[in-house]
Amino acid sequence: MIITSPPTAQAGWNQAITISPKADGQAPVFSPGMILTVDIARRVGANEFLVKINQVTYLAKTAGPLSPGDRLNVMVESLQPTLTIRVLQGQEATGQKLQQCLIPWRADPRRLLDIFTQAQALSRVEIPGELALLLKDAGLGNLLKFINSLIYSTQTKGNLLFLKEFIKNLGLTWEGILSREFSMGRFKTSLDRPLKSSLLALSREVGILLGKPDLSSATQLLLKNIEQFLNSSLKTIETLQAVNIFSWEEQNKYILQFPFLLGSEVRLNDLFVSREPSGKEGESADRWQLFLYLDFDLLGELGVRIESTEGNLDCIFLSSRKEVVDYIASSLPNLTDQLVSLGYRPTSMASRWEANLKATRQEIFNSYKINHLELVDTFA
User: Fold this and answer.
1) How far apart are CA 119 and CA 248, in angstroms?
2) What does 47-114 look like in DSSP terms, one character per residue?
3) Using alpha carbons only, how large is the chain's radius of gyration in Å?
4) Is 318 left (phi over 0), alpha (psi -120 to 50) or beta?
5) Which residues is 56 bridged to in the sheet?
6) pTM (predicted TM-score)
7) Which parts of the chain have pLDDT scores under 50?
8) CA-wise closest residue to 91 among 371, 379, 375, 378
9) Which of 83, 110, 176, 240 is deepest in the core (most CB within 10 A)?
10) From residue 303, how far is each of 24, 311, 320, 353 by CA, in Å?
11) Torsion angles phi and psi, residue 354, rounded to 5
């Protein structure tokens, strides 16, 4: 392994550090972009040190200034021909850690769906009597019901505040609120993030149950599957929190994904939100632009473009099927009346044909560039 100097490194870092694992340790799997912590254990020669990465001991050879007891943040740059990592310093290290939060989401932008599909699958699992009582006391049943209530369905469609409560329950803006609190020199000790709190509480209980002696292999397997579900769900929520704070801090944009129940299948729909602050003198209202992408069985793909300023709404429904465009157009007068009854002022309502909604969605998705590196590390 080679450790190269940071871009603004002090003199003496011009020499690379070559590292190889000791025989008594099993080297972890590395990948480019991975952020690691290197602990300098002790000097074993003029230019040789023992260092530790993830509890694995390595022999390091370098002409650069290393001191036993130092802890370095590094990033893997390449794997071939020799494993090379670069030392990160100061704000760069914080930014790179935050960027690493986004890796799971960039690899699978629709990972939120797993929380709901896995919860549904888990609710259908037959749990043995004694364990069922223990998991009931731990709150598994209540958690699964709570997750089900976060799906837009015939049971929840009457809730006009569904999206607002969905955002609150997943804690998607929690990190953004926390960042603003820090910037204003204050901090709220109680911020709403009920799903994450419930997952953490149940994870602790499942960990206690796994520590009990004399568990059957089947019970252990079931508990480990539940633990894996809880841990992956927590990771997904933390990743989505990172996505939203990156978007909001950089471009006043949000990407909101929410589950939609169609028959017995849960699908993930996309809502893209952008805010254009008022820049004209005498104007206090911001201009909001939204694009909602839906995927139905009978209607097929549907896009909805909305612009809103002080309660005024411009709304365009988009479909690639002519019969759907005509059907929506015939329903617009009724929809307009309903919006008026809710206090909105529809100024323009239309239904139009668009050839490729998937391409439109992807174009909007690509405009949300999440690459900010100078944020407070609220995920540490």
Assistant:
1) 29
2) TEEEEEETTEEEEEE-SS---TT-EEEEEEEE-SSS-EEEEE-HHHHHHHHHHHHTHHHHH-TTTHHH
3) 26
4) beta
5) 53
6) 0.63
7) 6-16, 23-25, 91, 182, 187, 189-191, 371-380
8) 375
9) 240
10) 58, 21, 9, 10
11) -140, 130
